[in-house]
Queue: 4 jobs
Job 1
Amino acid sequence: MKVHKLLHTRMRVNDLERSVKFYHEALGLEASRRFTSPRGAQLVFLRVPGSEEEIELCQMPAGAESVSVQPDLVHLAFGVEDLGAFAAELLRKGFALSDGPTKTGSGSVIAFIDAPEGYEVELIEGAK
């Protein structure tokens, strides 16, 4: 017996709408559904167009401990066609890279942008 598919990854956030706005404006992710959990948490599921996996953003009810992500603890990685053009578009929208672009030993080019709460987002242009 084994699992057959990754469905979603949950990330807790302090300000749900700020995070949804970041992932939509910076990366083009779309909210696929929203609801309140039985425990009162506000949930938004985000999806890359054309992908089945989702990112679940979760804001706990008032009074819950604040989220503070340790550096280099976790990151999301997204493929992009042209990292230079993508980075220029990010900058035009008011988002700056926090690291890179850096060419890797495999020939791909990577860069990072910081999401709210300190989550890192890696952008990867495949080797050519």
Note: The two ends are 38 Å apart (CA to CA).
Job 2
Amino acid sequence: MDGFAVWGRNPVKEALRSGRDIEKIYVAHDTSFPKDIAKLAKERGVKVQRVSRKRVEELAGTKKTQGVVALLSPVEYVSPEHLFEETIKRNSFFLALDHITDPQNVGNLLRTCEVLGGVGALLPRERSSPINQTVVKASSGAVFYLMLAKVVNLARSLREFKDMGGWVFSVEKGGKDIREFEIPFPCALVLGAEDKGVSKNIRNLSDEILTIPMKGKTGSFNVSVAGAIAMWEAVRRSLR
């Protein structure tokens, strides 16, 4: 099983009604999706994805799914405002994960964030890895000590953080050498998907683009490695 799953129409409906944080609902292509569940999912902002019946059964670990399975989050999400307020209060940092879909990378990033004293992470609702068992395992349980917030529009939320007095720094090629830049707190460190990097609109609103220098021929780091380096550079002066 790839997540914390409930299956069947009534259980999924009750999970939605209960207010539990739900990562995603999967519906088999060959089944009709009940309108009441669709309505509740829309009201709650839960993404619904059509997949094969085989995939639904794999997620549920049973064939008795009625064609519907929901992945429950193992964590309780907070509002972005709460994440921002706590980051400012602690004069610390949080991660903004710009459409990183690999759960192993997300888990690794969250583990490093927690170890180095970060507050948590801001995640987009769309095109982002769910917080599932793989993330929990890769983070070594760090997810349970962090504040996680999901938002519809990452750029808009980061602008709100800036309006509250925070700084936003994108870790991306073509910017200032991260070794020579003293990163001020409170701040958000933005990391983008390996194939596309940080989105243009987020780069444009960033206070600075920070670049990790490289000498090798491959030309890039895994995003979780880049994130670890950036987080260390952000906190190392405060750890002296």
Note: The chain has a mean pLDDT of 92.
Job 3
Amino acid sequence: MIKRLMAVWLLLFFTSAVYAEESNIIEKVESSARAWLEGVDSGKYKESWENSSALFKTKTSEQEWIKSITALRAPRGTMSARYIATAAAAKSLSGFPDGEYIVLQFYATFTEKGLALETITLAKTQNEVWQVVDYSMK
């Protein structure tokens, strides 16, 4: 009986530790995503490109990014609220090398065009920093 209680206690302890670690990772990733999005919300498109990962910069040139994000965001007006909808981890994503990725989706409201779904993908760099590798809005 004591062995079973110890086994259950150990299982609960390790489950809690794993959950706390995953929760901490999501908090770090969400914080990184929100900081990057603040730059986009402020119209600092050049800076958002500069603060993106090397994968993002390889995929999209600075000029292409500024042109596409301006066309996407300008008609929507000012962002008024943003709420996290989903978060998922992946080791591989189509179009990207294998690695550690977190895909976040946010519902965002804008003054001119209302509700949008933003998808932002971040990758863990070699120095343990989470950087944006992809962004889209629908």
Note: The first strand starts at residue 79 and ends at 90.
Job 4
Amino acid sequence: MSVARVTEIIATSKNSFEDAVSKGVKRATKTLHGVTSAWVQSQQVVVKNDKIEGYRVNLKVTFILKD
């Protein structure tokens, strides 16, 4: 039987929400082994001078704990 853990990370991108998610998952898998899924808890845009300057996502990343 496997036991999983969920951790929350925040990732940003200047390009898009999709890019922010990709960057977040890529970074999470460098440290966390056995990542099985990630879901977007929330999305935000960073606005500066009336323009969107960045995209931010809060991700919940699930990974399997080693025995």
Note: Helices lie at 17-31.
